[in-house]
Design a protein that fits this description.
Layout lengths: L2 H8 L7 E4 L5 H7 L7 E5 L20 E8 L12 H15 L4 E4 L3 E4 L2 E13 L2 E12 L18 H5 L6 H17 L4 H9 L7 E5 L4 E8 L5 E4 L5 E4 L5 E4 L2
Bound molecules: biotinyl-5-AMP.
Biotinyl-5-AMP binds next to helix 2, strand 3, strand 6 and strand 7.
């Protein structure tokens, strides 16, 4: 991957700006520090040395192995009521790119993409505020493309995989996958206010109708029913109590 090839490949998507690094700490950190970045600007790196998950967990991106990118959005005011759906836009975009390769992705709400029950991608969204208003959103996406992107098992709480592992043959060049993810993102973004987005997101959820544990500040277990309009998750807990899980630093685990 190099900057010139990326510029050429992505030109049809007219990114607001593009910063490419052979190696970086975290693309999200670079994106957060990019003052005045235009809408749909991108930070991409071949390697991250301090890649971040949620709650200061680590994200593993060895050199030449996967996609580590941060997309900067400057949301227009009309999108303000729907910004909580942004994680769905990102998850569906990665899922669409996987489907385009003949894979069968599912979204482990809120921020993971699973292939065959294993994590192939994660999303980390961070917000830059200007007073009470959202100035920009940084959407970090880490996608395991080649086998070498999969961390050693002792590094993981949940099994991981890569596109190459699941395809059973070599994966396409990362620039191709990036193009597919970003063009899907642009299509879904136009539909952020629609029921169609929610339906597609809902249909892609992993563990629907199954028992899950929600691990986080307020743990709860129940049957996963589907999404709320804001992208929150609806569960049927014990005694037919319906529980809505809003976004936050929660993780799902399958099991009764
Ligand atoms: C995430 O957090 O899944 C969000 C990951 C976002 C990474 C992107 S890469 C570009 C941008 N720049 C950054 O610095 N970050 C973003 P979370 O749900 O908290 O999951 C983190 C957990 O996933 C870790 O504790 C590990 O167990 C596991 N993990 C780490 N690297 C992985 C990998 N490459 N593949 C699968 N699992 C991984």
């Amino acid at each position: 991957m190099n900057e010139r090839a990326l510029q050429k490949k992505l030109s049809r998507l007219t990114p607001g700006g593009l910063r490419y690094f052979d190696s970086i700490g975290s693309t999200n950190d670079e994106a957060l520090a990019w003052v005045g970045a235009p809408d749909f600007s991108l930070v991409i790196a071949d390697e991250q040395t301090q890649g971040r998950g949620r709650l200061d967990r680590k994200w593993f991106t060895p050199k030449g192995s996967g996609l580590a990118l941060s997309l900067i959005l400057r949301p227009p005011a009309v999108h303000t009521p729907y910004l909580s759906r942004t994680v769905g836009l990102a998850a569906l975009s990665i899922a669409d790119a996987c489907s385009g390769l003949g894979l069968a992705p599912l979204i482990k709400w809120p921020n993971d993409i699973l292939l065959n029950g294993k994590k192939a991608a994660g999303i980390l969204i961070e917000t830059v505020w200007s007073g009470d208003e959202v100035d920009s959103l940084v959407i970090g996406m880490g996608i395991n493309v080649y086998k070498s992107s999969v961390p050693p098992a002792e590094f993981l709480q949940f099994p991981a995989t890569s596109l190459e592992d699941e395809l059973g043959h070599s994966a396409p060049a990362r620039e191709e996958i990036l193009f597919d993810v970003l063009s899907a993102f642009q299509r879904w973004r136009e539909r952020i206010a629609t029921d169609g987005l929610l339906q597609a997101w809902d249909a892609a959820l992993a563990f629907r109708g199954e028992q899950v544990h929600v691990v986080g500040e307020s743990p709860v277990s129940g049957e996963l029913l589907g999404l709320e309009a804001d992208g929150g998750l609806r569960l049927r807990a014990a005694n037919d109590n319906f529980v809505i899980i809003r976004f936050g630093d929660v993780s799902l685990r399958p099991g009764a």
